[in-house]
Amino acid sequence: MSQVKPKKALGQHFLTDLSIASRIASTLDDYSGLPVMEVGPGMGVLTRFLLDKGHDVTVAEIDSESVEYLRENFNELEGRIVEGDFLRLDLDKFYEGKDCCVIGNYPYNISSQIFFHVLEFKDKVVCCSGMLQREVAERLAAREGTKSRGILSVLLQAWYDVEYLFTVSEGVFNPPPKVKSGVIKMTRNGVTDLGCDAVLFKTVVKTTFGQRRKTLRNTIKGLLPAGAQLPVDHHLLGKRPEQLSVAEFIELTNLVSTLRESLLK
Q: Could you write out the three-class secondary structure of the chain?
């Protein structure tokens, strides 16, 4: 098999620029001792650089044609090809509770889902990097006060330091996508406890961004029991969700929790 045909249904755009693949692989240079899971390797352009750097690489690939290509051309991956959907892979069980890294030239059509999945294993995934649609990459790294900020921005930044590294043009892919790409790197921060109910935190973030044009005073009402009285002059309630830092979302979560508890007494 000489080449793999890119499949639109799988969001495949194969990187052809080796220098960019090398730069992406270099994002894991500080983690040479940890196993690496590469998502959607395709024909292994990034895989080759990871292997050459000595990483302990396993690849997860849903496309049977790509799997066949990798088996024919990468002897080093014998026994290290997971043929299936990364979104269904339990990284904790796969790596037997050990820390790991995740990397990839992620399929554009499921990139957000991939990062939600990584978030489920935040206690084990110490670094996650790679390339995705620029708009999405910018959103993941967006700071408070920017229009790009969204649900994943806050949820990821609660547990990771997220860096937008560089932009990649359309012409270095086969086939060329209609949009530019962006490369990010997420490094696990030192947070082990948010200082609030983590499940409620996620609910507050999703609820407020679900009505992002409204102020928080209006959006959190739906999270409170009937009769709850919001503070008149609370400094967060006149803001919109994209204006809040992670710390302020934690503060807002604790406010919701306190108001809920006060009505149960």
A: CCCCCCCHHHCCCEECCHHHHHHHHHHHHHHCCCEEEEECCCCCHHHHHHHHCCCEEEEEECCHHHHHHHHHHCHHHCCCEEECCHHHCCHHHHCCCCCEEEEEECCHHHHHHHHHHHHHCCCCEEEEEEEEEHHHHHHHHCCCCCCCCCHHHHHHHCCEEEEEEEEECHHHEECCCCCCEEEEEEEECCCCCCCCCHHHHHHHHHHHHCCCCCCHHHHHHHHCCCCCCCCCCCCCCCCCHHHCCHHHHHHHHHHHHHHHHHHHC
User: Average pLDDT by consecutive 10-residue portion of the chain (265 residues)?
Assistant: 74 88 98 96 96 98 95 96 97 97 94 96 98 96 97 98 97 90 97 97 97 94 86 93 98 94 69
**Domain annotation for the chain: domains and CATH numbers:** 8-188 (3.40.50.150), 198-264 (1.10.8.100)
Within 10 angstroms of residue 129's Cβ, the number of other Cβ atoms is 21
pTM over 0.70: yes
String of b and e for 29-66 (b: at least 16 CB within 10 Å)? eebeebbbbbbbbbbbbbbbbbbeeebebbbbbbbebb
Chain position carrying tokens 């409204």: 214
